[in-house]
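Protein modeling request. Please complete all fields; requests missing the sequence field cannot be processed.
Requester role: graduate student
Desired output: 3D structure, token encoding
Chains: 1
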Amino acid sequence: MASQKRVGVVLSGCGFLDGAEIHEAVCTLLSLDRRGVKLVATAPDVEQLHVVDHVKGAPADGERRRVLVEAARIVRGQITPLSAVSGRDLDALVFPGGFGAAKNLCSFAVEGRAMRVLPEVERIVREVRGAGRPMGFICIAPVIAARLLGPEGVKVTIGNDRDTAAAIESWGARHVDCKVEDAVVDERLKIASTPAYMLGPWIAPVATGIDKLVSAVLEMA
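Delivered output (221 residues):
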């Protein structure tokens, strides 16, 4: 009998404007859980770029929150600091999106093409890549794959946003337009991506695309 696969899910907070997109995160966790994997939810223990009031859609002055603490809300407290997770111990790794992926896991939201990836995030991506294991990147998170694996010519999608696609290709990666219900798979590098809420418009089509991504990731694991 095959051993249970261990799949890491890297969260970037809680709430699409300043952390992980909650629908994407839950759809990812549900899709993985239904396939019987061992979930390893994780997040970096760093301060968020800022806190956004999700009613007003604007930054909340004076508030400060930590990514790990906020991400723990999504997984009922069952979360591990990213610093304590080794990519070599995982069979696969998935990054849900949300602005937190572009604000807390990397600096794309602020620096665009000059973006930097959080060192802990870069470490785990390179460990998983070095072990030849698959990864999935959802919504805006594929910019992380493109920035780190662009020199290898990784193929990803963020949907069809021209400016983001141009940034992705500026790093040597290849962008492929994709519908929300579909996923793009780079079988050579074992990378899957799906647009999710880069296109929306709501939960059902986003969930369909994420389920296809999860299926593709586990088939490569």
